[in-house]
Design a protein that fits this description.
DNA-binding; Ribosomal_uS13-like_H2TH; 4-stranded antiparallel β-sheet; 6 helices; Helicase, Ruva Protein, domain 3; N-terminal domain of MutM-like DNA repair proteins; 2 domains; 268 residues; alpha+beta
Amino acid sequence: MPELPEVETTLRGVAPHIVDQFIDQLRVHNGSLRWPVTRGISELAKGQRVVAITRRAKYLLVELERGTMMIHLGMSGSLRLVDRAAPRRKHDHIEMLMTNGVCLRYHDPRRFGAWLWSDSGFPQLDHLGPEPLTDEFTGKRLFELSRKRKMAIKPFIMDNRTVVGVGNIYASEALFRGGIRPDRAAGRVSLKRYEQLTVHIKEVLTSAITQGGTTLRDFVNGNGEPGYFQQTLMVYGRGGQPCVTCAKPLKDIRLGQRSSVFCPACQR
DNA sequence: CTTTCAGCCTGACGGC
DNA sequence: TGCCGTCAGGCTGAAA
């Protein structure tokens, strides 16, 4: 599932082919996504130049001369650059054809994603916390925000108001590296441990982006499998298997309706 | 205010 | 073989 590293990888792969190009056609084959695709978006986008593509949290923002398109990949979405003559696959819901011949296809089996247009901002972006890979994201911030909070630390760091872009995979991995149990109350973690945790979060995200980038050369050919899936995951998806550190079996619990794997011996 | 939880959706997988 | 139930999960908004 796309987490922040995959969204960032997608941005870097797509931007050089799209920015400064003109939209020839925006075809919506199935506009029934997380929110209905903006009515009339094809007419709104047609002929416009793409001024820039940026990312905020897991949202991609395609800035046009007038208005912005906001794309989210949801749980199962992907954006691929393909030859416009390539046959459309099942679940290819939207395609953006550029006048330079490039074709960007939005593919999303579960349709949890989004593709919206607005010229007055998006409310989804209004209450987001800092980007994890900036200096705004500090252990001090986590410590202060968490005081008197009884919520478990894992859902706390996955809350977009705390910090954006930390999904289930990287929350699990960072907590393992930090030696913190995912079900520990957020308010009962010291400043020192929060400072260490922010370093681990930045490291796992950065390393995943680096590895995601290794598949970028294949992007245009449609081999969209992101490289970071190959990275060694120490706890995520490994419930019952031995801990890489102490070999005791990893425990799998549910926190906030999400599976959470951890080592009861190494994480406290 | 904080916290929990249903719902959105399809594909993969296990049991029978 | 195929049918059925369960699980996966980001995000929102309503309920507690």
